Amino acid sequence: MKIFKKIMMPAAVVVVSAVFAPEIFAQRITAEEVESKSKDEFIDGLLGRMTVDEKIGQLNLPSYGNVKPDAKKSDIAGRITRGEVGGIFNIFGVDDIRALQEVAVEESRLGIPIIIGADICQGYKTTFPVPLALSCSWKPENIEEVARISAREVSTDGVCWTYSPMVDISRDARWGRVKEGAGEDPYLGSLMAAAWVRGYQSDDLSADTTIMACVKHFALYGASESGRDYNPVDMSRVTAMNYYMQPYKAAVDAGVGSVMTSFNEFESVPATGNSWLLRDILREEWGFEGFVVSDYTAIKEMVSHGVGNQDEVSLQAFKAGVDMDMIADFYDGSLKRLLDEGKISEKELDAACRRMLVAKYDLGLFHNPYRYCNPERGEKELRSAANLAASRRIAAESYVLLKNDGDLLPLDGVKKVAVVGPLADSRANMCGSWAKDAVTGEYNGLVENLRKALGAGVEVVYARGCNLVDDEKYEYNFTSREINKRGDGKELLAEALKVVNGADVIIAAMGEAEAMSGEGASRAILEMPDCQKTLMDALDATGIPVAMVLFTGRPLALERQAAQADAVLNVWMGGSEAGAAIADVLTGKVNPSAKLTMSFPRVTGQCPIYYNHKNTGRPMAPEAWYTRYVSNYIDVPNEPLYPFGYGLSYTEYEYGQVNLSSDEMTADGTIEASVVVTNAGQRDGEEIVQLYLRDMVRSVTPPVMELKDYKRIALKAGESRTVTFNIDVNDLKFFNSVLDYVAEPGEFTVMIGGNSLDVESAKFVLK
Ligand code: NOJ
């Protein structure tokens, strides 16, 4: 694997010399040993002098939790000294991390360093848009840059291992965690997964500025039944392999160092103890060589799943291939007994322990356990001007323009702008839920950024307009960082209507607070909260044009509000520079070019909704809405409100016919598919030209279309360009009923367009 590179660095830190150490430290790792031996020799030698308890200790990942004034006197420090801990997470602050690393290196018998993990999923001190938003740029290079900056920043503060990327394909916006992934498409999701890994790990994991990635949640967590978090997943292996597994595999192919299991069950077996997932696919089929960590208490949760007691579930997880136990302390309590009873062998224990030691070796921790504690570099890099500038650019590139009637945006020639809505003056709601280290006081809000961007000649007024949600307890629960003082609904609305008086345009900043999506934040109703609906009705009734700025962590069902608004800009949760980036787009400094990577339903009942669905035996005719006895609803159309791949720009693009270089292809040949795309508007812009294929007949039912490639092109106003895609047999492959990856001869439809519902097509035959 790429990450297992030879370490070139000299030993920078010498651990306490054995000569002066008491007898107990006689077997401690020495700098000389690290330097003089090959990786395998070193690890063999170390394993050979570890006790069973020390080996089990390496598989244990507790949370720091018990913050004490003196880290060295904490309970965890005691456990580290006794060799019971392989790594720690939920510990923040380089001083405490360094202190505990000192305990590991200087006070434990062998001096094995600990690995320090954290959920660095959308930046560290500089935060970036939530991953779902990032994916909407369709720019893997943006994600790589985000991961790179995250790694550079957090590696100054002691962390060398991140629980990112999350690559769970999700088709159901009720699930709160959709915002942590790249949406519904396996192809795009795979590109993004690999980009995250490249960004974090680069090609030298031992460098001080790179950290180990952990792809999660293996596997299929995004398909939890009815969108409820932690719920079972049940699907065929064919569906799993064709749609859901691809991004995990892409991360493995990119050299990801670790994999995290998921909370859900699959085929009635908890994923954390599922040997088909963890052994057959991950290790044997894909050749993954890194280590597997459970999700938080996931081994313990197998007891609640109902598959056994502590020893039984520990045995099942261990045998399935989970190396490290996050938080549960089940391995700590059970593995020794299981070994004594002959249920696991020392060889198996050694294999798991070896994977942990290899990870630490590859991270360079044996050469220098303090290499990730670098506050001096941190002073230069954390929230540096360059990082914040990248955050601003990348945020603007993730905002999706969903509607823009009458070219209301960008704001032009306006004299008075009214910014209204419960999220209009928010800072905390911009960072997203995995930005635990974000100092929200350092964020700038939308109102002040708009004032700055529009200049002194434009009056920008503000009113909150309504509470976030009607229910006080609900609002309290879901505004974790920023507790709004609730107002009287009627008074807030009256004030807003007064404030908007005479405005040329209303910017309605509404949607979800950051804690309304994320882990444990599934929603059964994807609509705007009632009080926000009332506000929108009232703003609409004023007759003043309304541009909705939609903050959200997921697709929402906002058919009525989208109809009321003249323009809708979806800004997700945009990170440190969200406010400035929103102003950049609203004022036209940046022409939006992002496209949705998850379908927006019209109503919640359409979920799960996704573009690469099956035709069924009774498909709905494209022009029809309701026909009896075909696959549709009697009350709403099948189509989403906004489809996958959709997003507008301040200019317009026109697509010509699809031309194919041939109408036949052989298994070793290629076909060129091309289309002329024209920027028919008045502004320069960037368009994401999308290539979809449909296999017309095959041995397992095909989806109606699948994204296979895309090109992002810059076009000047009035410019035309021929965009060409090469199609080869790899684009035509799928997993058949015995899970062979094959292409079957027959007819294929090529579709090219600016979103999944608006395409031009042509056909060819694979001979
Ligand atoms: C549980 C979450 O599912 C996972 O994504 C996260 O990395 C761990 N907790 C650790 O915080």
Automatic annotation (TrEMBL):
Pfam families to which the protein is assigned, alphabetical: Fn3-like, Glyco_hydro_3, Glyco_hydro_3_C
Family, per entry: Belongs to the glycosyl hydrolase 3 family.
Residue span(s) of domain Fibronectin type III-like: 687-756
Keyword field contains Lipid biosynthesis: no
Protein name according to UniProt: Periplasmic beta-glucosidase
Record's signal peptide: 1-21
Keywords, ordered alphabetically: Glycosidase, Hydrolase, Periplasm, Signal
Gene Ontology BP term (one): glucan catabolic process
PROSITE patterns named in the record: GLYCOSYL_HYDROL_F3
GO molecular function, one term: beta-glucosidase activity
Originating species: Candidatus Limisoma faecipullorum
Primary enzyme class: hydrolase
Gene3D superfamilies: Glycoside hydrolase family 3 C-terminal domain (3.40.50.1700), Glycoside hydrolase, family 3, N-terminal domain (3.20.20.300), Immunoglobulins (2.60.40.10)
